[in-house]
Specification:
alpha/beta; globular; 44% helix; 5 helices; Rossmann fold
Length: 110
């Protein structure tokens, strides 16, 4: 059963624990296999899923499959562990897909 009021967060336990304090359900993972299992479970139970960028790379195929339906919404977020543009690039792609224009485009590219 999909819980429309809860948000799932997937990533390393130390980087996502703060989300538990604000009422999100967390799925601590440590490798690609556990990430795939956690995301598949979350897809069947939640409408909104956040996944840290350091683990999203393991499940890009699953995330791509979710983009053809309204729910669940899977968003890639920065893990905070190290500098990575992966999450920002994914958010930028999602915004461009939704609006038809990339409003987050880096000015250095112009």
């Amino acid at each position: 059963m999909v819980d429309s009021e809860k948000i799932a967060v997937i990533g390393s336990k130390d980087s996502i624990l703060v989300f538990k304090a604000v009422g999100c359900d967390i799925f601590g993972v440590s490798n690609a296999e556990k990430t795939r299992i956690a995301l598949n479970k979350a897809i069947s139970q939640y409408k909104i899923i956040l996944i840290t960028d350091d683990y999203a790379k393991y499940v890009e195929d699953i995330i791509a499959d979710t983009q053809t339906t309204a729910y669940p919404v899977v968003l890639v977020i920065p893990s905070g562990n190290k500098r990575s543009d992966y999450a920002l690039n994914k958010i930028s792609e999602d915004v461009e897909r939704a609006l038809g224009v990339n409003i987050l485009k880096n000015n250095k590219e112009n």
